[in-house]
Amino acid sequence: MTTPTEQRNPRTLAIDAVGTSEILSMVNAEDARVAGAVAVVIPELARAVDAGVEAIRGGGRVHYFGAGTSGRLAVLDAAELLPTFHVPDGLVVAHHAGGLEALLRAVENVEDSEEGGAADAATVTGQDLAIGLAASGSTPYVAGALKAARAAGATTVLITSNPAAPLAPLADIVIAADTGPEVIAGSTRLKAGTAQKMILNAFSTTLMIKLGRTWSNLMVDLVATNKKLRGRMLRILAEATGADTDACEAALAEADGELKPALVHLLTGTPIPAARAALEAAHGRVATALTTLGAPA
Description:
There is one protein chain. The chain is built from 13 helices and five strands. The radius of gyration is 22 Å and the shape is globular. A five-stranded parallel β-sheet has the order 2-1-3-4-5, with helices on both faces. The protein has helices at residues 20-31, 34-40, 42-57, 68-85, 101-104, 114-120, 140-151, 191-210, 227-241, 245-254, 259-268, 272-281, 286-292, and strands at 62-66, 92-96, 129-133, 155-160, 173-176. α10 (245-254) crosses α11 (259-268). β1 (62-66), α4 and β2 form a beta-alpha-beta unit. By secondary structure, it is of the alpha/beta class. The model has no long low-confidence stretch (mean pLDDT 95).
């Protein structure tokens, strides 16, 4: 049976016979369907987030497994968590079929290897959450990873664009965003890939919020790895506290460049060492630390 992502799209049959603007309009119209498909799977996505929170609080990790576009999107999501949320190295791990070489160039047969997926999942433990990404819902590499993860006792998740995904029985939670046939039949880097990116964005962002790595809608665990991010740190402090630039710079310097203790210090007047202690006692949650110190959260 042909999966939805491999079927021909009746709305784009004449895509090669129209002008440039019409082609772009067809692509855009199909893209507009993705957000609705993702909205339908929010209940399952919420279960995955809660499972991720439980895994990390229990000393486990989150693993992504994917091949091709799916794997590249997983690598992108995991990589961007460090500068945005100061996630410890190895807490969210992306495994891409074929490794680093396959990120830039397709490597023959790696996505067809169940053994490769199982080998990449060898480090998964029963405390972990394992997430497989497969637009078609049938990628052998992902099958091998999910089987190995389940055998290790991990909670398993499948992210797919096939509501009848053959790999569904391997997952405790199935997130199937039905994006339908692609603009170009089988090109899952399009709508299916966009859905996966949206789902990963929502999953990892919500996971970080639940773990206390934001305060309100501000990135308070930000790591300033460049000039732009250092400027963002100062803007966050100024916006959150009302302090002027000099005070924000002084607080950051005293906090060795760490935003959270500088923020708690500016909001409460608490010395930096005491602000750090309050944050440690609150498992990094700014709102809890503020309440402990007698300030509004």
